[in-house]
Amino acid sequence: MRVFVTGVTGQVGTEIVAELNRRAQQRLRGPALDIIAPEESVLDIADRDAVLAAIGTVEPDVVIHPAAWTAVDACEADPDRAYRVNCLGTRFVAEAARLVGAHVCYLSTDYVFDGTSPRPYLEWDDPNPLSVYGRSKLGGERELDPGHTIVRTAWVNGRTGANMVKTVLALAEPGRTLRFVDDQLGSPTSAADLAARVVDLALGRHAGIFHVTNQGSTTWYGFARLVLRVAGLDPGLVEPISTAELDPPRPAPRPANSVLDNAAMRLSGWDLLPSWEQAITELVAELMA
Question: What are the structural domains of the chain?
Answer without folding.
Answer: 2-162+190-216+259-273 (3.40.50.720)
